[in-house]
Amino acid sequence: MDKKDAIYGPFFGVFGASAGMILSAFGAAYGTWKAGSAISAATVIAPHVIMKTLIPVVMSSIIAIYGLIASILIIDGIKPSVEGYTMYTGFLHLGSGLTVGVTGLGAGYALGIAGEAGVRAVAQESSIYVGFLLILIFAEVLGLYGLIVALILTTKII
Hints:
Blueprint: H1 9-45, H2 55-77, H3 87-124, H4 129-154
Helix pairs in contact: 1-2, 1-3, 2-3, 2-4, 3-4
């Protein structure tokens, strides 16, 4: 591949870094919004559960950190096309960013829905707290899988 053929390579890398951060932040914001509004409503009924029910909000914030990690790694690898940044590298970075971003969006959505229902349920019956935590872990791990694949993609650069 000729150097001039790779002129758009950095565009795809920057787009991947941006998509990873933006989409995972949207997922984190949605999860925080849904779970946070449920916490506000549930603590009116049962104020003693507020500390126990903050878990979905914290887990939603971690989703944004996944996107931040992947985006920083992508940005660190971006250089001008004249310095050897190829279309292949740009597409790997795009795929990496989209992977962490879309899985973060899905995980944040899952955390928001499960967090909202779980917080309301724990406020009524505290014995289901362990089950609530397990469901949140299963939702969170979806974003972690996306981060792992994104990290593998960023290391495939030749």
